[in-house]
């Protein structure tokens, strides 16, 4: 499994550290499952795709066909996930490794003793900015990389 996953919405995106993305998705799923729209077809489908993204390592593609109301709901859920994460400085690996996300699949914390929540929150806010069309452009020749233990950085883009 790669340590990076691509997060995409429409024609934009960024790279994310897989551990941080998994922690964020777990909290986003938790918020979605207790929301007033938990049983709506679009959100049920979205949660299923987030579970798959969590386990598969193929990245996260956000649906460009969602309505403005659905995107607003997702932004609200992401804000709530960030707020919940902000109540803790870190999450111990033992807790993370016990999470069941899909069937018997468990989360893999890559041997870290704990995951600090600040970079995960920064990643969540980048997803919100991406959905809202407010993600700033990365410097020329680079792409954003969110969720690293040291926070946002950039990766050089190979030029053809």
Could you please describe the fold and organization of this structure?
It is a single chain. The protein has 160 residues and is α/β, with parallel strands linked by helices. The chain has one domain (4-156). The protein is 44% helix and 22% strand. It contains five helices and nine strands, in the order ββααβαβαβββαββ. It has helices at residues 18-33, 41-56, 68-85, 93-97, 117-132; strands at 4-9, 12-17, 60-62, 90-92, 100-102, 105-106, 114-116, 142-146, 153-156. Strands 3-1-2-8-9 form a five-stranded mixed β-sheet. Strands 4-7 form a two-stranded antiparallel ribbon. Helix 1 (18-33) runs antiparallel to helix 2, helix 1 packs across helix 5 (117-132) and helix 3 runs antiparallel to helix 5. The two termini are 26 Å apart. The mean pLDDT is 90.
Descriptive labels:
160 residues, alpha/beta, two-stranded antiparallel sheet
Secondary structure elements and pairings:
Elements (H helix, E strand, L loop, with lengths): L3 E6 L2 E6 H16 L7 H16 L3 E3 L5 H18 L4 E3 H5 L2 E3 L2 E2 L7 E3 H16 L9 E5 L6 E4 L4
Parallel strand pairs: 1-3, 2-8
Antiparallel strand pairs: 1-2, 4-7, 5-6, 8-9
Helix pairs in contact: 1-2, 1-3, 1-5, 3-5
